[in-house]
Specification:
With about 180 residues, the chain is of the alpha+beta class. It has eight helices and four strands, in the order βαβαααβαβααα. The chain has one domain: CGI121/TPRKB (PF0523-like), CATH 3.30.2380.10.
Length: about 180
């Protein structure tokens, strides 16, 4: 569980799930398209996520936009995906950072009120696949570094911490 001192009214749960089947991913995409309230989660492909810092930056910016009524998207979950993206286009963010059948692992984010129970969220994520401890190394291993560098227009960076900082910088500079 991630805590943001600036937002004590929220609990942020972040899970890394492996072993998602194509059928499970197709079902998730259908439920998201139908706006099923039971699927009020942010489902991120691990292809372009290299660290927890990158995720935390996106979540923090999204919560900041949400609490100040300045969101660019309709939902907080879509705002998280937009804040991961190096371009300020929601369709591009959903296409690149949203869950897809091309990747069998996903980062699942759920933002709750401070008093809400987390047990249902944990059961839900466990029903989708194998929940793996989320660490920088685990994220880096699942990322497609060649695609990551192409999306963020990074040529020379190799160190994971450099990739993280450059990706965050690209997201900040995109004009939001």
């Amino acid at each position: 569980m991630a805590m943001f001192p600036q937002f004590p009214q929220f609990k942020v749960l972040v899970f890394l799930v492996d072993g998602l089947t194509k059928d499970a991913i197709a079902n998730i995409q259908k439920q998201l398209a139908d706006a099923n309230p039971e699927y009020d989660y942010c489902f991120c492909s691990t292809t372009y996520i290299v660290s927890l810092e990158q995720l935390h930056h996106s979540i923090h910016n999204s919560l900041q936009s949400y609490t100040s009524d300045q969101m660019q998207t309709r939902t907080l979950n879509a705002e998280i995906l937009l804040n991961l993206c190096p371009v300020n286009v929601i369709s591009e963010a959903l296409k690149r950072f949203g869950i897809s059948e091309a990747c069998s692992s996903a980062v699942i984010i759920k933002i709750l009120g401070r008093e809400e129970n987390t047990i249902e969220v944990e059961r839900f994520t466990q029903s989708l696949g194998t929940v793996v401890p989320i660490t920088d190394d685990a994220l880096y291993q699942r990322a497609d570094i060649a695609k990551f560098k192409k999306v963020y227009k990074l040529n020379d960076a190799e160190d994971p911490s450099d990739l993280t900082r450059l990706a965050i910088g690209a997201s900040i500079l995109r004009g939001c």
